[in-house]
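Sample intake sheet
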Amino acid sequence: MTPDPHTTPHPAAPVPTPVGEGLKAAFRTHPAGVAIITAQGPDGPVGLTASSVSSVAVDPAAIVFSVTRATGSAGAILGAETFVVHLIDDEHSALAQSFAVSGSERFTPEQGWTTLPTGEPHLAEARVALRCRAIQTVPVGSSTVVIAEVLEVLTGRPARPLVYIDRRFHALSHDTAL
């Protein structure tokens, strides 16, 4: 079997250190935007919630995010040729929660999912969806950092962004968001 050129096996997960615990505490109170990342995996659609998405460059258009393991939905996304990063709004906080918990109901028509002509699951009501392909992955401890080229920007409807802070989802106020 030929190894996937986009992924590298992780070294054993390190034991948490006081600095690592301090870093977790620091970022627990640092707000981050919320995204749902989806792909068509070998066994069907897969997805996860991420709060680590950020833009990297505009030429070429690129983003970065991380996943905390290379198994399950994260592993399928890492192995997919393309995936979609949905920047979601406050009306989708329940959906973000369901994609953050293993075994939750996902990809139902009631949730608003469709399939793009290229095969990826798509939430048309997301504020923005970015169809991407990984151009580089970097293992860091028990996580993988993904640098992805944005192939297509799919605009949805204007809405208030959803942010993650102190282990909960929050909507920005109307004045703050627009």
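Comment: The CA atoms of residues 67 and 74 lie 6 Å apart. Residues 1-11 have pLDDT under 50 and may be disordered.
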